[in-house]
Amino acid sequence: MSERHTLRQQIRERRRALTAEQQHLAAQQLLERIQSHPDISAARRVACYLANDGEINPLPTIHWLWAEKKEVYLPVVHPFTPGHLLFLHYTPTSPMVRNKFNIEEPELDMSRVIPHSALDLMFTPMVAFDAKGNRLGMGGGYYDRTLACWQQHQLGPKPIGIAHDCQQVAAVPNEAWDVPLPEILTPSKHWRF
Ligand SMILES: Nc1ncnc2c1ncn2[C@@H]1O[C@H](COP(=O)(O)OP(=O)(O)OP(=O)(O)O)[C@@H](O)[C@H]1O
Ligand SMILES: [Mg+2]
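That is the input. Now the predicted structure with adenosine-5'-triphosphate docked in place:
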């Protein structure tokens, strides 16, 4: 576990050290990769996240998805099932609040929750990844739980990890519950596993 802890600290520092200009460029390059992704035109409901802690910023992508009349969903920490996420419809007028991690999320409104199975694509944040598609997150197991059903039965949205190139590591020390990703997008590469 401590190897995972050290790796998280190291890669989180690395991505927080990116300049505003590097972040801006990365977000634009990510948008271009998503615009040319083979699955995007058929996707109607897309889960994203709001960037935090130096993560690659999906906001330009979110604005483009809205312009394309697609529905955007954001993760919300489940109010009473620990370690789980809900996905809420996100629009330019969604009321926002800060969750227990001080991350901005849509205010909980059960009428805006979508079942995971109704999403078409899920862009997944990561702390670190390797060339086999292994993913290390922030340590809450939220996405592992969200993706467990997809991994077992191929039900629900295909997860596509998104990250800066500098978040690639030689090997993520995997645990049994970690869900590897079938695809990863970085500014410089589209990985398929
Ligand atoms: N499918 C699951 N069911 C039950 N517990 C799980 C599941 N997946 C992960 N966990 C638990 O969650 C905890 C954190 O997992 P892990 O360190 O892999 O988080 P992470 O992948 O870095 O975080 P995240 O998925 O939130 O980005 C672990 O203690 C693990 O036992
Ligand atoms: Mg994990």
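Residues 164 and 186 are 5 Å apart (CA to CA).
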